[in-house]
Automatic annotation (TrEMBL):
Residues 1-15, 30-39 have a biased composition (Basic and acidic residues). This is Uncharacterized protein. It comes from Paenibacillus radicis. It comes from the Bacteria. Residues 1-39 are annotated as: Disordered.
Amino acid sequence: MTEPSLRDKLSKVMAERSANAEPQPEQLPETEKPLTKQEEANAEWKAFYAAVRAQMLKMRE
């Protein structure tokens, strides 16, 4: 196989791949981006501590 025909085949395959590729999802605004697992875990802990603090303040009254 000569080099020009190999390049032609490669460019044909790459063109087919890009034509058949799934469209990229739209980028979400910063406020609507899904949370990472670490951010989600941090949010759960913050909510837990807020609930504990609220309960403690309620018990002090």
